[in-house]
Amino acid sequence: MDARETTGPGVKSAMRTVALLDFFARQGGMYSLTEIQQELGYPKSSLYALLRTLVQLGWVETDPTGTLYRIGMRALLVGASYIDGDPVVGMAHETLDWLAEVTGETVHFGRLDDFDVVDLSSRPSRHNLRPVIRVGRRLPAHSTALGKALLADRADPRLPEQLEPQTERTITDREELLTDLRRVRERGYSADREENSPGVCCFGVALRLQRPARDAISVSIPVTRLDDVREREIPALLMRARERIEYSAHHLLHP
Predict the structure, then answer these.
(1) CA 61, CA 189: separation in Å to the nearest integer?
(2) Which one of 69, 73, 83, 126 is at 20 to 30 Å from 45 when CA atoms are compared?
(3) What is the DSSP string of 56-69?
(4) For residue 222, which phi and psi values (nearest 5 degrees)?
(5) Residues of the chain with pLDDT under 50
(6) What's the distance, CA 70 to chain centroid?
(7) Is 206 in contact with 152 (CB distance < 8 Å)?
(8) Which of 21, 5, 27 is nearest to 79 (CA)?
(9) Using one digit for the tens of pLDDT, what is the confidence trace for 143-187?
(10) Residues 28 and 134 sit within 8 Å (Cβ to Cβ)
C-alpha cells in the first residue's frame, strides 16, 4: 500500500473525526472547544472547522450559545442499527426475556471492546430497587461480571497498564485479578461484588459462540436481595440461559 494512502489529509481527517466522536461517546456531557482541544491536542482552527461540519451533518450537537458540544442524534441512529442488525443480539432476545422473568432481576448482554465491555441489550428488574441500565454504556472489563467472564476465556487476557478503581472494592492489583479470573474458569461464572457499582452484585457467563468468547450475559442484583439461595440460583440460571442461546446459535448456523 502506498504510504500516502495512510498519511494523506483525507485519512488524517477521518482519524480525527473518529477520535472526536469516540471522545464524546466515552465522556458524555457537553464540552467547550478549549476542553476538547486540550484532550485531543488538535489545532483549534481545524478542530473548530471539524466540529462545525459534524454539527451540520447531525453527528454533533451544540447548546443554545453554540459554544458547548456533545454527541449528536446521528450517532444514536447508527448505534441502534448496529444492535438491530446484530445476529447474536437478535438470537438472545427471547432468552434474555426469559432470564429476566425467572430471576426477577436486571439482565445484561455485553460485548468486549478493547479494555471495556459495552452493554448491547438489557432487561430491567421487576423491583423498584434496581441498577440503572443504559444500552451502549461502556465499562471497564476488569470491574464487571460481563468483562471478567470474557477476560477469563482468554489464556493471556489483555489488560490496561492501570486497573482504575470504579469503587473501593474494585480489584486494581494485576496478580489479584488474574487469580480471580482463574477462579472464574474453575467455577464457570464470574462475580462482581460491588466492584463496579456500590450496593450491586453481578454474576456473568461468557457465550461460547466463538473462542475466545466475544459476548457475555449477566444478572445484577442489589446486595440487599442477595442471600445464599440467590447466590446459588442466579449462576445456575445464567448457565441455562447460555445453553439456550448457544443451542439457538448452533441450529441457526447449522440448520
Answers:
(1) 41
(2) 73
(3) HHTSEEE-TTS-EE
(4) -60, 145
(5) 1-6
(6) 20
(7) yes
(8) 21
(9) 999 999 999 999 999 999 999 999 999 999 999 999 999 999 999
(10) no
